Amino acid sequence: MVLSRPASESDLSVLATSASRYVRDSLPRYKMPESSIPKEAAYQIIHDELLLDCKPKLNLASFVTTLMEPECDKLVMESINKNYVDMDEYPVTTELHNRCVNMIARLFHTPLGESEDAIGVGTVGSSEAIMLAGLAFKRKWQNKRKVEGKPFDKPNIVTGANVQVCWEKFARYFEVELKEVNVREGYYVMDPAKAVEMVDENTICVAAILGSTYNGEFEDVKLLNDLLLEKNKQTGWDTPIHVDAASGGFIAPFIYPELEWDFRLPLVKSINVSGHKYGLVYAGIGWNIWRSKDDLPEELIFHIKYLGAEQSTFTLNFSKGSSQIIAQYYQLIRLGQEGYKNIMENCHENAMVLKEGLEKTGRFEILSKDDGVPVVAFSLKNKKGGHDEFVVSEMLRRFGWIVPAYPMPAGAQHVIVLRVVIRAEFSRTLAERLVHDITTVLHELDKLPPKVTSEVEENGNNGLVSKRKSDLETQREVTTLWKNYVIAQKEIRRQKVQHVYPPMNISVPPCPSIRLANLLANEEIARAQIGHVVSGTLGIYFDFIQTQLQGYLAGSQSLKNIDINVYYGRPLVNPEEIDGFHFKGQLYVSSESLVEVDAEEVQQKTTSLQFTALDDGCTTMGGYTLLPQDHAANTGETLQPQEIREEDKDKDHAVNNGKNLNDMDEYEERIERGGFDRDVDDH
C-alpha cells in the first residue's frame, strides 16, 4: 500500500530519457496514460528507475532470502502463472503444499502417527500465519468461556515488547488487548517470569519469539512453558503458548537440536515460520503449524465448491501464487537436513567473523548472543563528537551497505543499535569487507568536527541542553557570515590595506575528506582537486569524490599532517610564495571557483604545493557540483593573501564569466528559493 501525498509539478510526469528512441513524450506519473507505448520502452523506463534500488545482497537489514539456485528459479518461472487456490485444477501443487506442511510439522516434533497428516497452512508470510494462529486462540478461548458462562469480550495476549509489528496489527485488527513485557538494558527479550505474572483468565495465549527481530536472541520457551504449567495448575486455567519462529524455525532444528522450544513442550499449540527467511525461499511464503485438530476450531475453516471439487481453506486472502510453495518444496528435498545444517552453520560462522572483527576495533558493544539467529547487533561504546549509530549507518551507505540503526524496544529505548543479518548468501569475504568499511567509517568520524549544536532553554527552566541546529538556522548563519565577510572585503579594498583573510568559523556536516589527506600524506596521489560544493539544505557544504587518482576535498579541519583551513573570497593562492609553507597553510577558494592541486610537487618539494585556478564552468552531477575534466586552466595568474591589486578594487576575484561574489542579492535569493540542489540525506 502506498499512502497518497500531494504531487508537486515535477511529480506529474516521468521522462522517458533512455527510452526516447521509442517515446518522445513524457508519461503521467499517477494516472494511466491515454495511449500505449512499445514494450521495449516500458521495460527500459522501469528498469532504469529500479537501478536506484540498493543491491539486495548488500541489504543487511532484511532477513529475506535474495538468492536461490537457477534450477529453483526455473521452477518458479514455470509455475508463476498458477493460482494455488485452484486446487482441483492444480492437484499436484496442492499435494506439494501438503508435503511441505507435513515435513515442517515433523521438523517441529508435532505428535503425529506414522501415517497421520499434520494440520497446517501455507501463507504469504509469518504475518498472515500469526493472524491465523491468533484467531484460532481467540475463538477457542471464546468457545470455552461461553460454555463456562463467563464474559468473553475482553481477550488479551501477552508478548514481549520486542515482538514484530504483526502482533500489534493482530491485536488492533481483531480487538485483542496486547499486554507487553518491557525489556531492560542487558536483557532485550521477554522475561518468562514477568510474562507469566501478566497472564490472567482472559489471556488467550502467551507469544514467545524464537529469534528476536532486534538482536536475533531466542527467548526461553521451555522456562515459559514450565512457569505457565505451574500457574495453570494453581488457577485452573489452560493458557497456551504460540511460538513465533519466523526467523529461528529453520535454524534451531539443525544447529540446536537439543533445544526444547517446539511441540515437545505440552503448552505449545501452534508455531509459525517464514519460508522466505531461513527457509531459503524468495519473499512471499510462510507456514503455520498446529499441534492437533483440536487446536484449530472447525468454524474457522471454510469449505468451498465453486472451483470444482469441494475444498477446505483457512486463510485471510484467497488467491495466492503457487511458485513460492513449489520453491519451498524444492529446497526441502534438494538440501535435506544435511544441507540446511551446513548452511545454518556457515551463517553462524560468518556471524562470528563479523562479531570478532567488530570487537577488535574496541569501539563496539555486542548486544546479540552467539546462540540464536545469525544476527550481529552492536552499539557504539563512545559516541565521539555526537556522531552516533545513525551516522555510522548513513555513512555505510556510501559503500553500498544497508545496515539499519534503531532504538531498542520499550524499557531500553535509550540503547541504539546497528544490526547485520547474516543470510545464506552473505559470504565470509563480505563479512571481512564489511568490518573493513566500518573501520574506515570510524576513522573518518574521528577526524570530523562535532555536530553543530546550540544552547536552548528547556521547559522555561534555566537548564541548557544541546540541540542540533536546524537546516534553516545553519543557512542563515552561513548567509550572515558571508555577508559580513563581503562587507569587510569591500572596506579593505577601499582602504587599500594589506589583510590576512580570517576563516569562516562554521562547522560543516560530516564529509569523507580523510581519503584525500591520507593519499597526500602517503604521497600516493599524482593529482588532486579541491572543489566548493553548495547545499540548499545546509548552506555551504564541502564534499570529496574520489575518481581513480583524483578527488575532491571538503571541510575545514585538521587532517593527519595536513592542516587545511578553507577561506572564501579569493580565487587563487600560490603557497610557493608563502614563507614556511610546508603541509600547513591556507587554501583561498571563492564560492564559485575550483583550485587544482598538483601533488607531484609534494614529492619534490616538501615545503610547497602548487595551485592553479580553474575556470568556472561547473556542471551538476548526482547532486554535486563537479569540475568537468576537460576544462582548461585559468590564466595561471597568482595572487597573494597579503596583497590586493589596484585593478581588483571594483571587480570580483572569481575571475570567470563576470560573476560577482560581492553581490549578496543573488546569493540570498538562491537561499530563499530553497538553495542549491543537494539533499542532506543523500550524502
UniProtKB/TrEMBL annotation:
GO terms for biological process: L-glutamate catabolic process. It comes from the Eukaryota. One of its GO terms (cellular component) is cytosol. One of its GO terms (molecular function) is calmodulin binding. Keywords: Calmodulin-binding, Decarboxylase, Lyase, Pyridoxal phosphate. Transmembrane segments: none annotated. CDD domains: DOPA_deC_like (cd06450). The modification N6-(pyridoxal phosphate)lysine is found at K277. Residues 641-683 are annotated as: Disordered. Residues 643-654, 670-683 have a biased composition (Basic and acidic residues). It catalyses: L-glutamate + H(+) = 4-aminobutanoate + CO2. The keyword Membrane does not apply. Its EC number is 4.1.1.15. The keyword Transmembrane helix does not apply. Its cofactor is pyridoxal 5'-phosphate. Belongs to the group II decarboxylase family. This is Glutamate decarboxylase. The lineage of its organism: Eukaryota, Viridiplantae, Streptophyta, Embryophyta, Tracheophyta.
